[in-house]
């Protein structure tokens, strides 16, 4: 007997044949074809025998050709070897890219000199110099120590480095109760004050400060 109890593929073929053949007589022919005795042939031979037998029974040449083509396509799809196909694995933006560590090609810059001194009274001194021409130093102390109303931290120092254009930048500074006071040739200077304005400023500086008690207010 033509047995396909273990295979869903041929059940799909039978379903397509019965669905395709509209005439009841042809439905009987299609179902009886499964009783063909093909011996120990494989499933593929069973399908081929079924196609040949169905084609010889059906009287319409046009219908036979159409049925044979349809059955051949269905059989080829059922027995196609899809083992070589691999499942689609999305890549690109859906996968987090591993960040490579940043590599530096420049040589490390050596420290030629380094010093740091911290004293108990609050005074200090530090300095360093690198192999690429950078140097800095600073020293500081507490001014008027012991007088809370007049205590102030004082720091003075300098630093030097080479700008990208090759210019050597050197700056000296002083920081105290009057603020940060830098000095350097690269610092832009303001234009000179006109003589008339400077004379007026000098005159105002000689006047005594106004007395709020002697100020009179006009009432409307």
From TrEMBL:
- Kindly name one Pfam family recorded for this protein: Chitin_bind_4
GO CC annotation: chitin-based extracellular matrix
Lineage top rank: taxon: Eukaryota
A single Gene Ontology molecular function, please? structural constituent of chitin-based larval cuticle
Keyword Signal part of the UniProt annotation: yes
Residue spans crossing the bilayer: none
Give the UniProt keywords, A-Z: Cuticle, Signal
Q: What is this protein called?
A: Uncharacterized protein
């Amino acid at each position: 007997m033509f047995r396909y109890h273990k295979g869903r593929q041929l059940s799909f073929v039978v379903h397509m044949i019965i669905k395709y053949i509209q005439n009841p007589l042809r439905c009987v022919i299609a179902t009886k074809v499964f009783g063909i005795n093909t011996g120990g042939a494989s499933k593929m031979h069973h399908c081929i025998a079924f196609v040949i037998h169905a084609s010889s029974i059906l009287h319409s040449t046009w219908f036979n050709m159409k049925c044979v083509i349809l059955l051949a396509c269905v059989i080829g799809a059922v027995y196609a070897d899809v083992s070589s196909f691999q499942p689609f694995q999305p890549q690109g933006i859906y996968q987090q890219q591993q960040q490579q560590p940043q590599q530096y090609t420049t040589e490390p810059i050596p420290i030629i000199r380094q010093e740091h001194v911290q004293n108990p009274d609050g005074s200090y001194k530090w300095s360093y110099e690198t192999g690429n021409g950078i140097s800095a130093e600073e020293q500081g102390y507490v001014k008027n120590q012991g007088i809370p109303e007049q205590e102030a931290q004082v720091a003075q120092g300098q630093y030097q480095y080479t700008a990208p254009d090759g210019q050597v930048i050197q700056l000296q500074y002083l920081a105290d109760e009057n603020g940060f006071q830098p000095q350097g040739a690269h610092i832009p200077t303001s234009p000179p004050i006109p003589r008339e304005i400077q004379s007026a400023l000098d005159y105002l500086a000689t006047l005594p400060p106004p007395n709020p008690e002697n100020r009179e207010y006009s009432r409307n």
